[in-house]
Design goal:
It contains eight helices and five strands, in the order ααβαββαααββαα. By secondary structure, it is α+β, with helices and mostly antiparallel strands. A hairpin with a 2-residue loop joins strand 2 and strand 3. The longest helix has 17 residues. The two termini are about 35 Å apart. The model has no long low-confidence stretch (mean pLDDT about 90).
Length: about 180
Amino acid sequence: MSGGHDLDLAVRLLAGTPTHEGRDPLLLRQWALAAEEFGRRLTPDPVPVRVVERTGGLAAGLLARYRSRPPVVEVYVDTVECAERLVAERGWRNWFPEGSVRAAALAHEQAHAWLHHAEVRTEFKRALGHTALRLGRRRLYAHVAGADELAAHAYARAACGLGRSPLLLTEALAAAYCEREN
């Protein structure tokens, strides 16, 4: 049951991406399915990346962020704490066990780091199947904006054994923060 709800969240994320206005919802659903499947199957090499804890994530709308030069993952402890409280308030602890928010954020950023590798990026584009140019049998596959987020969320869910996609938590955090600001 939650798989359908998570897929709906994924389609909504793609539909809200500026380059996808007016795209066929079935195409967005196809891309979301492909991105989630790719993320679930992703097996990144354990690359040592320095983890730095920061504050200010709530204001920036970030749980964590991967920076490639130098390779570092910034974890925003204020957002992680807020997310853990939100999980408890909403009764989602069975989907997001204690401590899983930070673990999922790290896994999500690990997936982003892996998706930066040229061969992985090429495989991902092929899996999505969005053709930019075709010459006879040859195809040049295009980037699908937002699909990397879906793949990273799917990887984090699988790697951390979560009951729902972290995308649910990300959306709930954004809504809660917007409510507080208004």
